[in-house]
Amino acid sequence: DAKTTQPTSMDCAEGRAANLPCNHSTISGNEYVYWYRQIHSQGPQYIIHGLKNNETNEMASLIITEDRKSSTLILPHATLRDTAVYYCIVRPSLWQGAQKLVFGQGTRLTINP
Amino acid sequence: DVKVTQSSRYLVKRTGEKVFLECVQDMDHENMFWYRQDPGLGLRLIYFSYDVKMKEKGDIPEGYSVSREKKERFSLILESASTNQTSMYLCASSPGTSGRRSYNEQFFGPGTRLTVL
Q: What SS3 state is found at A81?
C-alpha cells in the first residue's frame, strides 16, 4: 500500500471548516484514498473514500488533486464531537482477499469552542 | 446502520485464564477482523475471517485463536492470558465481493479494553 503523510496535529474553531491534508505521492492507479477517524476510547469510524473525483457525504467532503498525489478531508462545520485522530490511508480497489487496515500516526484534530 | 457489538467494554482477567472476546455484526458481512491497538504501535491485525469456519492469521496471531461458527459472530480466544496481552481489542467487519469491486470500509465495534493482571 502507498505511504501517506499527515500533519501530527491541527486545531480548528467550532463552527468553522476543518481542512485536513494528506500526501500520498506514491499512490498507484488502482488505489483509493480512504479516511477514518477515531474518537478517544472508541473504535475507528469510516468517513469517506474516493478515487479521483471529489466526493461528499453526510459527514465530510474529500478533495483529491488532479495528479492524485494529495487530498484534503473537509469537515464543513466542525463541532466539538469532531475532535479525534483522523487517518488517511490508500487501498487497492480490487478484491485481494480480506484486507487489513494499517493506520499511520494520523492527525490529531482538536476543535476549540 | 451497520452495527458491530462487542461483548464487553472493559475486562479484567488474571494471568493464565482463558479469555473469550465476542463480536457480533448485524449486516450480513462476509469479512470479520480482530485487531489490537496499543499506544505507539497503532492497529495490528490478529486474525481475520472471510467466511464461516474460515480463518486466516494476521500479523500477530501468537497466543490467540479464533472461531467463526456463524456468519455474524467472530470470537477471539486468549488460550492463556498473559500481561503482554493487556490492550484494546477491536473487532471489525466489512462486506465481501462476488466478482464486484471490493469495499474497504471496515465497520468497527466500540472495543474491549482488556487488562491482564
A: helix
